[in-house]
Amino acid sequence: MTTTTSTPTTAAEKNRWYLSAAPILRALVHLCVPMAAAMVVSALYNVINAGFIGAQHDTSLLAAITFGTPLLGLVMAVGGVFGVGGSSLMSRLLGASEHDPAKAGEIKHVASFAVWGSVVTGIVLGGLGLLFLGPLVGLLGADAAAVPATSAYVSVMLVFVPVLAAAFCLEQMVRAEGAARQAMVGLILSTVGNLVFDVLFILVLHWGVAGAALAVGLANLVSIVYWVLWLETHSENVSLSLRWFTLRRSVLQPVFGIGVSELLQAGFLIVTTLVLNNLAAQYGDDPLAAMGVAVRIAQVPEFLVMGVTIGVLPLLAYAYGKGDRERLRSALRASALTVGAIVLLFSGTVFVFRQQVFTVFSSDHSVLAIGLTILVAQLVATVVNGFTGLFTSLFQAAGLATPAIAMSLAQGVLFIPIVLLGNLWFGLAGIIWALTVTEVLVFVAGLIIWLASRSRIDRGLDAGSVERADAVLAEAS
């Protein structure tokens, strides 16, 4: 077991020290800045990718990418079940191993199960999607004009579902050990690969949206290779070998307990996008094209916030597993203040220069008018969804399946009636603002659930503290 009180020398020991004993601000910088940087680079890539497609001067191509967005939800569903569920358990086991070294031995079983589970599930779902490609494209909401481009984009994405799911899972596992810098490097490698492949497939070979999807899949293969090599050569606790694969209840129950919340969240994201696309399609391709561009622009400040809420999860899980109440509370306070500062600074900046930014990607006046409204709605939602993400990360870190699932259910259950009533009462404006109204209500729900769950969190911390005290007494004896 790595000793956190001694001076760390290896990369693994330094990453462990950030989780266990480093000053909170320094730990947050180590964990969240690389994550936020990688998320921003990824968001900027999404904007640039939309620019590549927009340069083809074909609105149906932008609409095809918007129709294909639910597939990213599918990847999140598959990768999130195994990646988030597995990584939060791994961080808790690392924290618990400070007073019970045997806990570290369980991490290899968790890692092997998570990675191979995501690959196999991705293969099955990708194969089913290709088998029913025609009905799937219709379900996504594509009209006759957008069917060819959407089919090309979706079919290529389905081939790479196992790759994307495995990449998402591995990234979570690397961060579970506190290796935020290595997670960032893998994500940036993927983004750079995306840009290179985009130039080749879209601008040189003129493969359109199929080339864009192929670029995403191949770029994620690059990140997979990097993360696998790093884990195999630097990690003291993780192994991806099949010999560690297990279906023991002690692994399955906590992984799926938290993973189900990710599955529900991603599943509702798919349903939300399907309903949104089908309702917006009634108003033509312009709203869909504007929505695709506006969402990508708003992702820049949103991804900064996600860098904090996702980046802090291993720190929260480690502190919870260790039973360190003060460290958990300090991490939560510092994260909340950081999220608030980011929202005020960056969302405000994007709001002020929204027209100048949007015109870079579309000069169509009808698309611009709709897109600016959508962008404002997205930025308002960003104000609250950062704190909602922090609530969810806390529940996942503590292994509280019911509160995590409740957060996932809240958004999906609330959005459907809100968007349907919004469309009925206010038309396109009601559709655009439905997600914003939903995010505000979900934040309120998260606050209530957090207040109701505090006693459970305290009991979990007390249990970890007792185990640590018992270990100290045994060592003293």
UniProtKB/TrEMBL annotation:
The keyword Iron-sulfur does not apply. The keyword Membrane applies. It is found in: Cell membrane. The chain crosses the membrane at residues 24-48, 60-84, 113-140, 152-171, 183-203, 209-230, 251-276, 296-320, 332-353, 365-392, 404-425, 431-452. InterPro entries: MATE_fam, MATE_MepA_subfamily, MdtK-like. Pfam families: MatE. It is a multi-pass membrane protein. It comes from the Bacteria. Keywords: Cell membrane, Membrane, Transmembrane, Transmembrane helix, Transport. PANTHER family: MULTIDRUG EXPORT PROTEIN MEPA, SPORULATION PROTEIN YKVU. This is MATE family efflux protein.
